[in-house]
Design a protein that fits this description.
By secondary structure, the chain is an alpha/beta fold. It is about 30% helix and about 15% strand.
């Protein structure tokens, strides 16, 4: 299953819009998409804060587990902009729940004690995919994406980094590459309640 978190001021329906629906990727990769709505305008209560939105995500997860047959060893979380920041933060803090993270143009990471298992090559799970535009004027890559990638790699995470020539948006090519990465990871194979014992 892939959990997708929308941008600030956005909505879950954006992941399924006619111009760029993620449903075909789910069909091709044989996974479920869970796209919750943030309780407020954005995820958390501001930069570098948790808020209580993880509770809403937990409820959505529990409903999905009750209704669908989901392999809990293959859970991914991702998002765009503020949604990417929150997904990256939750995924890293709950590495024992999420095996994969996809962050499209993230702007911050909430500091927390990371939890997770050790991978076969010694690197910690989850595996991380970050894509960020080199001309992003909303969340400049030099003070966000590049720093996050460098820090995560220094801390033993395996990070796939896609720096593209563009601004603060998602192109079909960038999404195609990220979804291909995820589908490959899901099929190569590599539970769940989110913990927020860190605020």
């Amino acid at each position: 299953m892939l959990i997708l978190l929308h941008k600030a001021g956005g909505s879950a329906s954006e992941w399924f819009s006619a111009s760029g629906s993620y449903a075909p990727y789910a069909d091709r990769g044989r996974f479920i998409i869970l796209a919750p709505e943030s309780p407020g305008q954005s995820w958390g209560t501001g930069a570098k804060k948790w808020g209580y939105d993880y509770v809403a995500i937990n409820r959505a997860l529990e409903e999905a587990f009750a209704r669908c047959a989901i392999d809990r060893s293959r859970l991914a979380i991702g998002g765009f902009s503020d949604g990417a920041s929150y997904a990256l933060s939750l995924g890293l803090a709950n590495g024992d729940v999420f095996s994969y993270i996809i962050a499209f143009s993230p702007g911050f990471i909430v500091r927390a004690q990371a939890r997770g298992r050790q991978g076969p090559r010694g690197g910690e799970v989850p595996l991380v995919y970050i894509a960020h535009g080199s001309a992003d004027n909303v969340l400049p890559i030099a003070s966000t994406g590049r720093i996050f990638v460098s820090s995560l790699r220094k801390n033993g995470y395996t990070v796939e980094f896609r720096e593209f020539s563009g601004g603060h948006y998602l192109s079909r090519q960038v999404v195609d590459q990220a979804m291909s990465w995820l589908i490959t990871a899901f099929h190569q194979h590599r539970s769940g309640k989110i913990d927020k014992s860190h605020s």
